[in-house]
Every structure is written in C-alpha cells, then in structure tokens.
Amino acid sequence: MADTPTELCYTKDHEWVSIVGAMARVGVTSHAAELIGDVVYVSLPTVGMVVAVGDSCAELESTKSVNDVYAPVAGVIKTVNDAVTNTPEAINADPYGDGWLFEVEMADSEKPSDLLDASAYSDMLASDG
Fold this sequence. Notes:
By secondary structure, the chain is α+β, with helices and mostly antiparallel strands.
C-alpha cells in the first residue's frame, strides 16, 4: 500500500493537499505517481490563474499517458514548483516533498468538506483494489 501521510488531506482524484492558513499546497499522491508511471513532462498552471474546485490546472505526462491534475480548492494560484518542470522525476521519487506542484491562496478559509483524511483515502484505495 502506498504511503499516506496523516497530516495531509486527499481528493478522490488522488491529489494531496497541505493547508496552512489560507494557503493550500497541492501534489499527486504516491498512488497516483505509481499509476501514472515515470513522469517525463509537467505542465503547471500560471501564477495568478483563478481556479475552481475540480478545474483541470496541470498535466503530468508519462511514457504511457497524459494525466490532468485538478484543483482541490478554489482560489488563486500563488506559487508553482518550477523545479518539477526541469526534474519531473521528483514527482515519482518524492511526491509529498520535492514533487509538489502548486500552491493556491484559497478563496474560502474553510477546508473544503469533500477532502478526505488519510484514513478515508486509504479506505478508498483499499476498496478500489
């Protein structure tokens, strides 16, 4: 079973979210990284872009597919991790660390109710498997 850090929130689309104040850092889970395979190209959102929950705002391309990354929170893209465009393998090697993708300043300071905690995400993975 892929690791699931307990301090993070998760989406059903296999993104992770770290919320600190009004900022949400977003990446893909280790489960998603395993499914995608070796990431060879990353397309990140533009800083200043306004996103709604569920908007496709980034793409990860592997040798076998192109995968959308969806905004798990609504707000404005404040930061992108340019390092992953130069070293996309960081997404596979360290999805919860160096492989993060972008940060959103949330429009609403409340954590979205549809985000899963680590236990619920692990349960979802177990029921899918």
